[in-house]
Write a structure and sequence with these properties.
This protein is of the alpha/beta class. It folds into 2 domains: 91 residues, Winged helix-like DNA-binding domain superfamily/Winged helix DNA-binding domain (Arc Repressor Mutant, subunit A, Orthogonal Bundle); 193 residues, D-Maltodextrin-Binding Protein, domain 2 (3-Layer(aba) Sandwich), CATH 3.40.190.290. Helices cover 45% and strands 22% of the residues. The chain has 11 helices and 11 strands. The strands form 3 sheets. Strands 3, 4, 5, 6, 9, 10 and 11 form a 7-stranded mixed β-sheet that branches. A two-stranded antiparallel sheet has the order 1-2. β7, α8 and β8 form a beta-alpha-beta unit. α1 crosses α3 and α2 crosses α3. It is rod-shaped and about 95 Å long. It starts with 10 loop residues before the first helix and ends with a helix.
């Protein structure tokens, strides 16, 4: 069935009248809509003028519907109820589809997977589809609901694609770590150590420069898996930069030590989602990730 929006009264007025009919008074309707009593009465009177018919009369504090008002109230209540039901089903369908997440291997292995049961405590039954990759994928083209990314603090949101929205999660401290024996063998400068990287080598070199290191002097190798990287660091193969909070257990256990770096290193973590209505779990998931960074 087609209709012309120009022939319909104001939706605000229709909503005010439906609430008045359902609640039985302007005062109760105002409370239900979280507006003033006068605003509801004004909208109902405007609707009557628009339609050219009386819809309700006041009897004390109550409102009594005319026959025309009763017919319109039934139609509006049915229509708004149908809309409400369909919206609820649409939201439930989006939530049941599951949340598709793209992130770095480091984020997946060291932050999300070890703590995922905590997310499920608050969102029981939520389906999470996790795709770790070093690449910055096209969220819209690949059908992802959210991406968790790290970047240098100097990078601004203007670098994000126009079809995406970016939300800052947290700025964290990163530190250099290495096996004690390796540091003892190379005591002159951090540039004398072999360095191991994971994920985005370009970002990690930028971070090292911001920490005051001469990256042109570094002996470097990339190890794709954060867990393998940490094993290599423990084994004395090389040093790496690591999130301070996540490295603390390794330091406390004596498996690694800090590597002195001239200046502090900071990393920004952001959540990126496609513009438009987000997946119902996208923003809760981003807030949850923030708590474990």
């Amino acid at each position: 069935m087609s209709f012309d929006w120009r022939n319909l009264p104001s939706l605000t007025a229709l909503r005010a009248f439906e609430a008045t009919a359902r609640e039985g008074s302007f005062a109760n309707a105002a409370r239900a809509l979280n507006v003033t009593h006068a605003a509801v009465a004004q909208q109902v009177r405007a609707l009557e003028r628009d339609l050219g018919v009386s819809l309700a009369t006041r009897q004390g504090r109550r409102v009594v519907l005319t026959s025309a008002g009763q017919r319109l109230a039934i139609a509006l209540t049915n229509a708004f109820s149908s809309i409400s039901d369909e919206i609820a089903q649409t939201r439930a369908g989006a939530a049941s589809r599951g949340l598709r997440v793209t992130c770095s291997p480091f984020m997946a292995e060291r932050v999300i997977m070890p703590n995922l049961k905590d997310f499920w405590l608050h969102h029981s039954g939520a389906e999470i589809s996790l795709s770790p990759t070093r690449a910055y994928v096209d969220l819209v083209a690949e059908g992802f609901d959210i991406g968790i990314r790290s970047r240098h603090p100097a990078v601004q949101d203007g670098s994000i694609s126009s079809g995406l929205e970016s939300f800052h999660l947290k700025r964290i401290q990163a530190i250099g770590i290495a096996a004690p024996a390796l540091v003892n063998e190379h005591i002159n400068a951090p540039e004398d150590l072999p360095w191991l990287w994971h994920d985005d080598m370009d970002l990690e070199l930028k971070l090292m420069r911001s920490g005051g290191l001469d990256v042109d002097r570094l002996k470097q190798a990339r190890i794709g898996s954060p867990n393998l990287l940490l094993e290599a660091v423990r084994g004395g193969i090389g040093a790496t930069i690591f999130t301070e909070s996540l490295a603390q257990d390794e330091i406390d256990a004596g498996r690694v030590v800090r590597v002195d770096i001239p200046r502090p290193i900071e990393v920004d973590y952001v959540a990126v989602i496609p513009k438009g209505p987000p997946h119902p779990l996208a923003l809760p998931f981003a807030d949850w990730v923030r708590t474990f960074l």
